[in-house]
Design brief:
The complex is a heterodimer. By secondary structure, chain A is an all-alpha fold. Helix content of chain A is about 75%, strand content about 0%. Chain A has helices at about 1-25, 40-65, 75-90, 100-125, 130-150, 165-170, 175-195, 195-205, 210-215, 220-245, 255-265, 275-295, 300-325; strands at about 155, 245. In chain B, the strands form two sheets. A six-stranded parallel sheet of chain B has the order 2-1-3-4-5-11, sandwiched between helices. Chain B has two domains: about 30-125, 3-Layer(aba) Sandwich (Rossmann fold), CATH 3.40.50.2300; about 135-275 and about 310-315, Rossmann fold (3-Layer(aba) Sandwich). The radius of gyration of chain B is 22 Å and the shape is elongated. In chain B, helix 3 (about 75-85) runs parallel beside helix 4 (about 100-110), helix 5 (about 135-155) runs parallel beside helix 6 (about 170-185) and helix 7 packs across helix 8 (about 225-240). Chain B contains eleven helices and twelve strands. By secondary structure, chain B is α/β, with parallel strands linked by helices. Classes of the chains: A mainly alpha, B alpha/beta. The interface between A and B is large, with 54 and 45 residues.
Chain lengths: ~325, ~325
């Protein structure tokens, strides 16, 4: 019964996915042998690769939003993690085996993200700041700190045999990046649907006061969600650094909005309490398919933004209608 | 039902949009040229786009598509990745940054697409040819011009300079700065008071300059690495009534009302150095790549610059 409800809830964005995919087929140009370019394995995997950063962030963003929060700092965290890793890889030259050096750089990046996420969570739950305000503050502050630590320069990885080039080669690998996204999506889905933590999170997002009377560990649950969000944004930052072959303190601007858009298109309610990982992944892919379809047709990139906007409105409108006619139990 | 309705709406919108696209016309042109532009919002880039569009239009069998990466390297990589899938006959890339674009241009070359690197370079030479402008030389010319102006003002090469930098890590920024500093090294009394990063943008430059004017009591020269930043600095100084205290030197020298040449004519900028658009040569070489099967372009073409001052404009 639970499964049926989950599917039903996830169903709407899933239909959207099918429709957008059909649209991609219809509008796709053909290559010289008459094959639809949209449908080639290379193109479809390009889409997953290009959406993986936003996709990873959106997973944890789903948790935060289900818990009736929001995290605006993820774009800045992405840049902080990318720059931290770049500093550790390029400016720091320890006498260490390569694998250890790489591990330290990766942990350094993830650590920055988890720390910012935990800070968000602690301040929001302990000091009672609104999530929007607190994460707006860290969005600004972390951006500033990152620019300050790097002297506002981007740090090139170079193309030699150095640790940085190895890092870039490993973490920009298409299959690895896509696998990471899939693995974390499965984990997130299981945590949300099969664990006590997931149930608590939804209960808190649905009705915080009721959750408090029931004695749920509200603070711990929320702090965990924000920490996970910071850590996943940091992971996206590592991939971003590898893919762009540098750490750039100015990257990741407005990524939080793309992630939130993916979550919203996926049917998660911004008010909290309700949402699925399947929906979020679907939402992320819908955005990727649309972008790709338009780029294959060489449509102006500003038109891309307008259509994205239309999709967001359409998706939320569908959700609203969903509420007016609730599914009977 | 609702889904179907929304799909139809979406399909109709997209159909309309893509229907307007020249790619959808029935008599498809023989050649497709994709120009990946790093940021349409800069005037220099807009001038490039305009000339590029005009020159390619003269070739009736060529369809030009310009993709705007909006100063986002990750976006430019993604756009080129998708362009590679459509196998254009020629790819022209004005890279947003050196390192990020290197690998994707290698992949374009590996896919057999002739690739022209326009103006800026990338970290490794993964291009058929690179049409470049010599920023080091422009930096040196600007440095020497500033030394002359300071000598004329103070009777000796001495003075206080404020620098406004473009995007860090970009070849143009490194060499426009480096060239000038090569010159100034020899003059110990020439002092760079401060350098602010304004990412090539007039609005950012104006903000940075406003801060600098509050902190720095006397300034002789503002050396901005492009004209819009020089204009931003000029506007900030004028707001504080200090525009006569210093001179403003820019680079790019674009034509048109908003371009640097007009600003020199109006006396706002003391000088600008023409930074070649590189587009005319790119179209010329690109055309030969498309039409002459055995054509082997040189690896690098260097375009030359020109000093623009009020005197040079008044001269017949």
């Amino acid at each position: 019964m639970r499964l049926w409800q989950t599917l039903q809830r996830a169903g709407r964005p899933f239909i959207g996915l099918v429709l957008v995919f059909l649209l991609g087929l219809i509008l796709s140009p053909r290559d010289s042998s008459g094959m639809l370019i949209f449908l080639t394995a290379g193109n479809l995997s390009d889409i997953l690769l290009q959406q993986a950063e936003i996709g990873l962030i959106a997973l944890a963003m789903t948790f935060v939003i289900i818990g009736a929060g929001i995290d605006l700092s993820v774009g800045s965290v992405l840049a902080a993690s990318a720059s931290r890793a770049a500093v550790l890889l390029v400016r720091w030259t320890p006498e260490l085996p390569l694998a250890l050096h790489l591990a330290i750089a990766i942990l350094g990046g993830l650590g920055v993200g988890a720390a910012v996420g935990a800070l968000n969570g602690v301040v929001i739950t302990r000091l009672g700041l609104q999530p929007f305000v607190m994460t707006l503050a860290t969005m600004i502050g972390v951006r500033g700190a990152t620019r300050w630590f790097t002297d506002n320069t981007n740090i090139d990885f170079g193309f030699g045999a150095a640790a940085s080039s190895r890092f870039a080669a490993i973490l920009s690998d298409k299959s690895l990046v896509i696998t990471l996204w899939v693995v974390f999506a499965v984990i997130a889905h299981l945590v949300l649907t099969r664990t006590v933590y997931g149930r608590y999170l939804r209960a808190i997002g649905e009705n915080e006061r009721a959750a408090a009377y029931t004695g749920l560990p509200i603070r711990a649950v929320r702090i965990a969600a924000y920490t996970a969000c910071g850590a996943l944004a940091a992971l996206a930052g590592l991939i971003h650094a590898a893919r762009t072959h540098q750490g750039n303190p100015n990257d990741g601007v407005a990524y939080e909005l793309d992630a939130i858009a993916a979550v919203v298109i996926g049917g998660t309610a911004l008010a909290g309490g309700r949402g699925t990982i399947i929906g979020t992944v679907t939402g992320t892919i819908i955005l990727g398919l649309l972008t790709n379809t338009l780029r294959l047709r060489m449509v102006d990139s500003n038109v891309e933004l307008m259509i994205k906007a239309a999709i967001i409105i359409l998706a939320v409108w569908l959700q609203r209608r969903d509420r007016a006619f609730p599914v009977s139990p | 039902m609702k889904s179907l309705l929304s799909f139809l709406l979406l399909a109709a919108t997209l159909g309309l949009l893509t229907g307007c696209n020249p790619g959808a016309t029935s008599d498809s042109p023989r050649y497709t040229v994709v120009f990946s532009q790093c940021n349409n919002a800069e005037p220099y880039r807009a001038a490039q786009n305009e000339l590029m569009t005009r020159l390619w239009r003269e070739q009736r069998d060529v369809q030009l598509v310009i993709m705007d990466a909006q100063q986002d390297s990750a976006k430019q990589i993604a756009q080129i990745e998708t362009a590679i899938r459509t196998k254009p006959h020629l790819l022209i890339v004005a890279p947003n940054e050196r390192a990020p674009l290197t690998d994707v241009m290698r992949r374009a070359m590996a896919a057999g697409i002739p690739t022209i690197c326009l103006e800026r370079d990338i970290a490794e030479p993964h291009y058929t040819t690179w049409i470049r402008a010599d920023n080091r030389e422009i930096g040196r010319l600007a440095g020497e011009f500033i030394v002359q102006q300071l000598t004329a003002k103070h009777g000796e090469p001495r003075g206080r300079i404020v620098e406004l930098a473009g995007l860090k890590g970009v070849e143009a920024e490194i060499n426009r700065k480096g060239g000038a500093h090569d010159v100034w090294e020899k003059y110990p009394k020439i002092e760079v008071v401060t350098e602010a990063v304004a990412n090539w943008l007039q609005s950012t430059a104006k903000d940075r300059m406003t801060e600098i004017l509050s902190a720095v009591p006397s300034i002789d020269v503002v050396y901005a690495r492009n004209d819009p930043m020089a204009m931003g600095a000029y506007l900030a100084a004028r707001e504080k009534g200090r525009e006569k205290e210093m001179i403003f030197v820019g680079i790019d020298g674009l034509p048109g009302d908003a371009g640097g040449i007009a600003k020199v004519k109006e006396g706002m900028l003391a000088a600008t150095f023409v930074y070649p658009l590189c587009v005319d040569r790119a179209v010329e070489i690109g055309n030969r790549i498309l039409r002459e099967p055995g054509f082997q372009p040189e690896k690098v073409y260097t375009m030359t610059s020109r000093l623009i001052t009020k005197e040079s404009l008044d001269a017949p």
